[in-house]
Amino acid sequence: MAKIGIDIVENKRINLNDKFLKKFLHESEFILLNKLQSQEAKTQFVAGRWAAKEALIKCLEKKIVLNSINIIYDNEKPIIENQEYRNIEISISHEQNYSVAVALNL
């Protein structure tokens, strides 16, 4: 049976504090974040990752260690790098003040 998870984040609620970020960003994601120049780009990056990981939790219907999940881009498409979750499709979008993500497990 297919399962879906979705999450939406208001970008202004995103905290860019390192202590907070290290609790849910994978080490590789944290490195990518620190390469971004603008606050807006950093906020969208974090909001998108947060929404995607929350959507993943809803899709799986179980708790996961958020900073163990690495979301990478392959041909401009977000994918979960962890082998355990490779069968789950994700999509991340940003619109003005919001970021949204969907996770689909077929």
Task: List the topology elements.
Blueprint: E1 3-10, H1 18-24, H2 27-35, H3 39-60, E2 71-74, E3 77-80, E4 88-95, E5 98-105
Antiparallel strand pairs: 1-5, 2-3, 4-5
Describe the structure.
This protein has 106 residues and is of the alpha+beta class. It is built from three helices and five strands; from the N terminus they run E-H-H-H-E-E-E-E. The strands form two sheets. A three-stranded antiparallel sheet has the order 1-5-4, with helices on one face. The chain has a two-stranded antiparallel ribbon with strand order 2-3. The protein starts with a strand and ends with a strand. Residues 4-103 form the 4'-phosphopantetheinyl transferase domain. One of its GO terms (biological process) is fatty acid biosynthetic process.
Largest sheet: 3 strands, antiparallel
Could you list the spans in which at least 5 consecutive residues all have pLDDT below 50? none
What's the CATH class label?
A: Alpha Beta
Structural class estimated from helices and strands: alpha+beta
Number of DSSP-assigned strands: 5
> What fraction of residues sit in β-strands?
25-35%
Helix percentage range = 25-40%
Number of helices: 3
**Could you tell me how far the N terminus lies from the C terminus, measured between alpha carbons in angstroms?**
7 Å
